[in-house]
Write a structure and sequence with these properties.
About 45% of the residues lie in helices and about 15% in strands. The protein has a seven-stranded parallel beta sheet with strand order 3-2-1-4-5-6-7, with helices on both faces. The protein is globular, with a radius of gyration of 17 Å. The N and C termini lie far apart (about 40 Å).
C-alpha cells in the first residue's frame, strides 16, 4: 500500500479503553493506517478480540491488560510496549466512564471519587508514563478523549462533568510542558456516540442533544470518531497542541 493509504506506518500507538466503543474503533483504524497498536483496557477477553481483529486485517497489535487507575500497571504497559515494539509515538488516553451519583446534595461520594480516579487520574497516569517513551522517540502525540459535558452544566452530572472539565485543563497544561519536546497534546470532544456509557444513561436519538447540551445533535457511531483521531495522529509532532477538536453540532 502507498504512504497515503498507510500514513501511520512505522508508528507505535497505545490506546487505553480500547476494548470497546470509541477506543476499539480508533485502535482498529490506526492499525489499518499502519501503526502497531497496543490495545489496553481492564478486560482481557475484549482487548484480545480487538488485537486479533487488527492482526487478521493485516496489522500489528498487542493486547495488554491495564487498569489506568493503577500507576504500576500503566507504567508496565508502556515499558512492555517499548520492549516489544520498540517505542511509543502515539497515545490515546480514552479510558473513562461515569458512575451512578445523583445530585450533589444527595450524591454518592464514593461514586464521585471513582469517577475522578478513572477520568482524571487515568489521563494523568497515562500521560506521566508515556512522556519518557515519547521523548525517547524525539516527539509524538497524546490525544485525550474529552466531553461536551465538561463545558455545560447539567443536574446530576457533577462528577463526570467536573472530571471532564479537569481533563480539558490538564490537556492544556501538558501541551505547554511538552511543546519543547515536540509532543503535541490535544483533546477530542466527540459529542454523543453510541457507546456503553450512552446506553447506560439511556441516550436515544431524541435526547442526544440533551446529553451534550446541544440541540439537534448528530448521534454518532464509534467509527465516526476514528477519522478525526486519524487526522490528528498524522499532523506534525510540532503542529497544533493544547487545542480541542470537536464533533459537537455547535461551538463548545
Amino acid at each position: 500500500m502507498s504512504p497515503e493509504e498507510r500514513p501511520l506506518a512505522g508508528r507505535v500507538a497505545v490506546v487505553t479503553g480500547a476494548g470497546r466503543g470509541i477506543g476499539r474503533a480508533i485502535a482498529r483504524d490506526w492499525g489499518a493506517a499502519g501503526a502497531a497498536v497496543v490495545v489496553a483496557a481492564r478486560t482481557g477477553s475484549e482487548i484480545e478480540a480487538v488485537a486479533n481483529e487488527i492482526v487478521d486485517a493485516g496489522g500489528r497489535a498487542l493486547a495488554i491488560v491495564t487498569d489506568v487507575t493503577d500507576p504500576d500497571a500503566v507504567a508496565a504497559c508502556f515499558a512492555r510496549t517499548t520492549e516489544e515494539l520498540g517505542g511509543v509515538d502515539l497515545v490515546l488516553a480514552n479510558a473513562g466512564g461515569a458512575f451512578p451519583h445523583g445530585t450533589v446534595a444527595d450524591g454518592d461520594y464514593d461514586a464521585w471519587r471513582s469517577t475522578f480516579a478513572l477520568n482524571v487520574d487515568g489521563v494523568y497516569l497515562t500521560a506521566r508514563a508515556a512522556v519518557p517513551h515519547l521523548r525517547a522517540r524525539g516527539g509524538g502525540k497524546v490525544l485525550v478523549m474529552g466531553s461536551g459535558a465538561g463545558r455545560r452544566a447539567g443536574p446530576g452530572w457533577a462528577p463526570y462533568a467536573s472530571a471532564k472539565a479537569a481533563v480539558a485543563m490538564l490537556v492544556r497544561v501538558l501541551a505547554m510542558e511538552l511543546r519543547a519536546d515536540r509532543i503535541a497534546v490535544n483533546e477530542i470532544v466527540p459529542g454523543p456516540v453510541r457507546t456503553e456509557l450512552a446506553e447506560r444513561v439511556g441516550a436515544t436519538d431524541s435526547i442526544a442533544g440533551t446529553v451534550a447540551g446541544v440541540a439537534t445533535e448528530w448521534f454518532k457511531q464509534p467509527d465516526d470518531v476514528a477519522g478525526l483521531a486519524r487526522f490528528l495522529a498524522t499532523l506534525p509532532d510540532d503542529g497544533p497542541t493544547g487545542q480541542t477538536f470537536s464533533l459537537l453540532g455547535r461551538d463548545l
